[in-house]
Predict the structure.
Amino acid sequence: MSMPELRAAALQLLREPDPATKAAGTRALWAARDGLVLDAATELSDPGALPGRPALPRLVPADRVPRRSPFTAEGRAALLHAIAHIEFNAINLALDAVWRFAGMPDDYYRDWLQVAAEEALHFTLLREHLQGSLQRDYGDFGAHDGLWQMCERTAADVLARMALVPRTLEARGLDATPPIQAKLRRAGDLRAVEILDIILRDEIGHVAIGNRWYRHLCELQGLDPLALYPQLVERYAAPRLRPPLNMEARRAAGFSQAELDWLNS
């Protein structure tokens, strides 16, 4: 019996609509990675209708996503639902990075499969907390599709994907998480604070992986990473950062001082 191929298995999981099945399958794929064949050279065909996702949450424009105070149970549920939706999308983003881009070094695919598995854990922890502590579930609130839209924009360019998904969109979580934790701590939701500790720790590693492969690709193509980044932000209409930045976390994720100076400017 032949062993499954890692990139094709990642694509199959990306197509899976059920969140629990997708999350569990992604973690199982990472656990089984040493027994998988990896074919980095083959261009896989896009089957369309990506990603697989459930009928709920209903996708709405970003300005219509509920923003409520974490100091009420309903408001806290809405906030944690929004974060769970980000983590569900992050599973899809990482799986897409695994299957879509052929010809990368083997470590690239293992890096992004690890990211997908950690995002699956984050989603699972948040969903369990929503269900157990707040009697709500993933899908109970509206959500927006901004993360996947950037994934689609950069589908033809792995360099742009590395620049604008992990180093831009995911890196925003490094800045946003500590203030959210402070509010949740004041609201008395210490389990949510603990989950966000895990997420912040892992996201530093995810952004570092994005930095690693962005610089690798820039070096291969003879490009200056610092000079290229603003051009990619403009070309792909990436969102602008909002201060304050989590400088400590960004340094730990591998941003250079020159990059941090530019971001702060």
User: Anything to note?
Assistant: The chain is about 65% helix and 0% strand. The two ends are 57 Å apart (CA to CA). The first helix runs from residue 6 to 15.
